[in-house]
Amino acid sequence: MDPRREKLVAFFLVVGVAGSILSLIALYMFAAGGVFRGTYTREPVTNRIQDAGTLNLVPLTGFVLFLCLCMVAGSLLYGIYYQKTANMRPRKVVEFARVVGRYGITREGVQISEAWEFEEALLPKYYVRMVTEQGRSFEYECPPEVFWACGEGMWGEAELQGRWVGRFTPYIGTPPAA
Question: Model pTM?
Answer without folding.
Answer: 0.67
